[in-house]
Amino acid sequence: MAGVKRPVVENIESTARDHLANERTFLAWVRTALAVVGLGVLVGKLVESDGIVAELLGLLMIAFGAGMLIYGITRFERVTELLDEHKFASARRGPLVLAALGVIISLGAAVLLLV
């Protein structure tokens, strides 16, 4: 985290490259999450509809973006710890859950467009 000082380690083999790749991946999660939150605000406030559908979909998108951000933070921290130990574990469940939620929200957006 921001106030935690990490030890400086010798750059053996791909240590620096691995950590920098982890950081780039984290920043991609942040950018994507903020884009989804912004889209949720746009849908919730600017889309004209006959009811609460747009506002509800906007709130779902904002919550989805926040969930993506939380997942990105926890994944970044976990991968950093593993890389420090010269280990790695691939993610399976998290991306699949986020993809499934994304499909559900996308279907909601399609319904909003058709109504």
String of helices and strands: HHH
Structural class: mainly alpha
What value does the average pLDDT take? 86
The number of distinct helices, counting runs of at least 4 residues, comes to: 3
Q: Helix share of residues?
A: over 70%
Major beta sheet, specifics? none
Shape: elongated
What does this structure look like?
By secondary structure, this protein is an all-alpha fold. The chain has one domain. Helices cover 75% and strands 0% of the residues. The protein has 3 helices and no strands. The protein has helices at residues 15-46, 53-84, 93-114. Helix 1 runs antiparallel to helix 2 (53-84) and helix 2 packs antiparallel against helix 3. It is elongated and about 60 Å long. The N and C termini lie far apart (45 Å). The model has no long low-confidence stretch (mean pLDDT 86).
